[in-house]
Amino acid sequence: MVLKLLNQVEPRAAVFGEKDYQQLMVVKRMVADLNVPTEIIGRPIVREPDGLALSSRNTYLNPEERTTALCLYRGLLAARELVAAGTKSRENILEAVRQMINATPHTRIDYTALVDPETLQEVEAIRGEARLLLAVWINQTRLIDNTLLSESRLCCV
Q1: Is a pLDDT exceeding 80 seen at residue 132?
Q2: Where does residue 76 rank: exposed (0-12), middle (13-18), buried (19+ CB within 10 A)?
Q3: DSSP labels for 136-153?
Q4: 123 by DSSP, 3-state: which?
Q5: Do 88 and 37 share a domain, yes or no?
Q6: Same domain, 60 and 137
Q7: C-alpha–C-alpha distance, residues 118 and 49, integer Å
Q8: What phi and psi values does residue 99 have, to the nearest 5 degrees?
Q9: 90 plus 135 within the same structural domain
Q10: pLDDT class for 154, splitting at 50, 70, 90?
Q11: Is 103 exposed, middle or buried (CB count within 10 Å of its CB: 0-12, 13-18, 19+)?
Q12: Chain segment 69-91, per-residue pLDDT in tens
């Protein structure tokens, strides 16, 4: 669908949010591989004041589920703290995030992944930078979120 749209409209640039980071990277790769003359620009995640990533899916959450959904953001923050303290192991980081989310009622993890920011291939440890990806069900609503983790500096969520 994105390729058809880019071919029909022929924009010089298209902006995609980093909330769906995997989509952003797949579109970037597709544009490069197919020589589509459109610059794909990623923009940072926009968050509510409490940290929840803005999403049209948030409207499906009742007030209790909305509070529950904050476990995604807390998981991202916990991962940042671990990395800032020197943790680089994928399994240690993901296990801490999973424990935090699983301790929150009415949640079900779809996936947690620590990947190379460019290739999206899973990494065993952070060497430079890695992207933490989350997909979590809050009752019947599936939410996604992510953050860049860096061993050399504290990254923004």
Answers
A1: yes
A2: buried
A3: EEETTEEEEEEEEEESSS
A4: coil
A5: no
A6: yes
A7: 29
A8: -60, -45
A9: yes
A10: low
A11: exposed
A12: 999 999 999 999 999 999 999 99
Q: Which CATH number belongs to the domain containing residue 78 in this structure?
A: 3.30.1300.10
Query: Is 115 inside any structural domain?
Result: yes
Contact yes or no for 97/134 (Cβ under 8 A): yes
Query: DSSP letters of 21-62?
Result: HHHHHHHHHHHHHTT-S-EEEEEPPPB-TTSPBP-GGGGG--
Residue pair 136/110 in contact (Cβ under 8 Å)? The answer is: yes
How confident is the model at residue 151, as a pLDDT? 87
The rounded distance, in Å, linking the Cα atoms of 76 and 78 is 5
Q: For the chain, count helices (H), then strands (E).
A: 5, 5
Whole-prediction pTM: 0.91
Contact yes or no for 73/138 (Cβ under 8 A): no
What are residue 143's phi and psi, to 5 degrees? -115, 150
Beta bridge partners of 34: none
